[in-house]
Amino acid sequence: MVSAVHTAGTGGKGRISTFAFGDYVVSAAVNGRLFAVALGDGTVRLIDGETLDAPSTTVKAHKGAALCLCADIDKGAFLSGGDDGRLVRIAPPATIDVIAEIKNRWIEHVTAHAESGVRAYASGKDAFILGKKSASPRKVTHASSVGGLAINPKGKRLAATHYNGVSLWWLAAQDGAATTLEWAGSHLQVAWSPDGNYVLTAMQENALHGWRLSDGEHMRMSGYASKVRSLAFSRRGHFLATGGSERVICWPFTGGGPMGKAPVEFGGAGGAPVTAVAANPVHDMFAAGFENGTLILGQAGPGGTALIMKANGNAVTSLVWSPDGDRVLAGTENGDVHIADFRE
Amino acid sequence: MSESKSGAIPVTVLTGYLGAGKTTLLNRVLTENHGKKYAVIVNEFGEIGIDNDLVVGADEEVFEMNNGCICCTVRGDLIRIIGSLLKRRDKFDAILVETTGLADPAPVAQTFFTDEDVKRKTKLDSIVTVVDAKHIEQRLADSDEAEEQIAFADIVLLNKTDLVSPEDLKKIEARVRALNPFAQIHHTARCDIALDKILDKGAFDLNRALELDPCFLHGHAHDPNHDHDHDHSHDHDHGHHHDHDHSHGTVNPLHDEDIRSISLTTAAPLNAAKFDAWISDVLLGEGQNILRTKGILNMAGNDQRFVFQAVHMVSEGSFTGAWPAKDKRRSRLVFIGRKLNEAALREGFLACVA
With an 8 Å Cβ cutoff, are A163 and B76 in contact? Predict the structure, then answer.
């Protein structure tokens, strides 16, 4: 089951372990002490985040490519979707359970909320909501394909993005229509603010769009050099960090939200766009990866940045922090996975 | 934008009205031993044979996308599917996109110009339109789509030629040629054409298209009786055709709503800045009516050919390669579209003379 070439070395900051998996890293997730990455060859690799020197475990999850990955609702398990139409649950050491299978379709998005025990996944225009105790999922259909899914922090509502807006579904309901947040254009990745009052989307255009749910106020953030691709709220929700520009653009969400305010910026990698951002769960800090492979840590506002990995031409596709916030995993286009370990 | 992208995966777009023979062609690509692995994006699984190639079903989702000052339509489903295909381990050599019989080819073509990821890793190789020779007159009479599919084509497969008389075939080919002066036309009975004549041709890439078709520059690229591509080939020497004067536009007289083409040429060198300003203005103002634009231009003070092309308002142009030594330097610009104001276009074009 062990195949990756595994090397370790000390970077500028922290100790860096590198796994060379050789296939495009589609997505990365963490659950307890386990990191997982889903790859373009259809496998999911499990890495023990405590003992980074240990070999990884390979799980043959999908026949084609894996398309999405998230932590499942219980400790140590993950969910992955693939272009074989399967949604599978992966539990250590390497058990696979097929949760759903949709013939001739792709499972493109998956998310789960541990406290409420709800899982949601999407295929084409359909999203499926699977409650902890339900035997079969509730299917909700949108007018166009789903571009992203996110469950709100309280585990009550699901946001599904699509062309011309976002649909919000109540997870506990068995029927009923969605609340729709409308804005022209194709909406992709989506994030909820930690207080649940804002929904933000990265668009197909080089722009970000947002809604304040309490009063329906819109916010439109444009001027990005490329697609935003990645967005992450800081742990307390003071800032939203975004990709798509040459620097990490952070929008302030304190004191009434970002409307009419200038963003705070940090970092840079010689002009390459930011392709992934992730908020540290314990400290007020973000990790950011760039299209040229640069990996940095930084804060919104003064405080400087720390270089974790220099440019190597290998675009960062995914970033995830350990729950303790002292290790960060970066997945890349050519299949290298780097874990920076900041533990004493 | 048109610098060569090494390693970019070629994409062939297959269009054609219902019943023209697209599925026959698709099945040949999927089953023949051509040594290449295709990822095929189909609009329905239907009757196609699936062997080793990767077949993906797509729901055609046409999106409007606002790109700064221009608005264009793209295929959201293709952006997603191609984005995911590019992550796969089982690499493939090329992508074939089948469109429905009623599809407008513009959003498909524009997808390859506008989405960053798709643009970075793939290149539009050619738009191949299969035309049913027996029924094309009727189709052209009763549908806009059939007309648009021909207007957008880089390669036209005039299929079912065994069902029409040689005289009719000549008329049909002239009709196709009038709609699209720059497409390569092949004659087939049951899509029986060597696949290497339609796949991986670089026909959309104007620079390579010109190599395939050196006559493009001289305004008589393919007159109906002068096809150097179809199977019963006759030898001919391009050299002796090159003295014609085509400084006037050539137009086929049709109704205002019909698609037609306008071809403009001049031997006088153009001012690059003036041309850029003029063509940007034309496409911004008339880009909804102009389906495609292709041109090779002789810019004053530059020894290289300037090649230009556009799908509606989305354009690209660059200096690419020297003029062939035996060629006279001469600019030619072709517009295909509806409601084209020929006099204004010609006047604007000639005002770009340096």
Answer: yes
Distance from CA of B326 to the nearest CA of A (A): 43
Distance CA A339, CA B12 (A): 40
Nearest-Cα distance to chain A for B275, in Å, is 27
State pLDDT tens for residues B184-243: 899 999 888 888 888 877 766 655 555 545 455 554 444 333 333 333 333 333 333 333
Residue B51 to residue A22: CA distance in whole angstroms: 27
* Dist. CA B156–CA B163, nearest whole Å: 17
Q: Nearest by CB to A106, from B54, B84, B89: name it.
A: B84
Residue A79 burial (CB < 10 Å; 0-12/13-18/19+)? Answer: buried
Please name the residues in contact with A150: beta carbons below 8 A apart, sequence gap of 6 or more: A111, A158, A159, A190, A191, A192
**ipTM beyond 0.90?**
no
The whole-angstrom separation of Cα A123 and Cα A138 is: 13
Beta bridge partners of A202: A208
Q: Residue A40 is nearest to which of B74, B80, B89, comparing CB atoms? A: B89
Structure tokens at A211: 């809604």
Sorted by sequence, the CB contacts under 8 Å of residue A261 that are 6+ apart come out as A251, A252
Is B89–A42 a contact, with Cβ atoms under 8 angstroms apart? yes
Please list every residue in chain B whose beta carbon sits closer than 8 Å to the beta carbon of residue A65: 84-85, 87-89
| Residue contact A108–B80, C-beta within 8 A | yes
Torsions phi, psi of A151, nearest 5?
Answer: -95, 140
CA dist A218 and A211 (Å) reads 5
